[in-house]
Amino acid sequence: MITAALIFAALAAVLHVYIFVMESLTWTSPRTRAMFGTTAEEAETTKLLAFNQGFYNLFLAIVTAVGIVAICLGHTGVGAALVFAGVGSMLAAAAVLLASARDKARAAATQGAFPLIAVVLLAVALAA
């Protein structure tokens, strides 16, 4: 069960690296603007905010990845704490997105599905 939890945590981390790329590196590109539903003017105006937000997503992915590595190296307590911190924050961000913008429910579900599964599976694996 712990292996499944780590796979979903890794998928969540990869997704958040992709979000980092979109927000911090390609924010004003037509493809990214279409993904986020912004105009060229809105993207240019919010470029610095998105750049910063993208790094939050990258840091959550890094924390999660370090936790996965720690668990794989036998440091289950420290690793689990890091994985829970990383994917738990991702899940909380998805909940905030859903609560603040119901029209972004699909984005919130996409952002939060892997972290939710990782949290549940890791909690069950550690409780066993």
Task: Describe the 3D structure.
- The chain has one domain (2-24, 51-127).
- With 128 residues, the protein is an all-alpha fold.
- The mean pLDDT is 97.
- It is built from six helices and no strands.
- It is elongated, with a radius of gyration of 16 Å.
- α1 (2-25) packs across α5 and α4 (47-72) runs antiparallel to α5 (76-100).
Summarize the structure.
This protein is mostly helical.
List keywords for this structure.
membrane, mainly alpha, DUF1304, 128 residues, transmembrane helix, 87% helix, elongated, single chain, 0% strand, 6 helices
Strand content: under 5%
Helix content: over 70%
| Uncertain parts | none
Mean pLDDT score: 97
Sum up the overall morphology in one term: elongated
Structural class: mainly alpha
Number of helices: 6
* Radius of gyration, taken over Cα atoms and rounded to an integer in Å: 16 Å
Quick one: biggest sheet?
A: none
Number of self-contained structural domains: 1
Strand and helix layout:
Blueprint: H1 2-25, H2 30-36, H3 40-45, H4 47-72, H5 76-100, H6 105-127
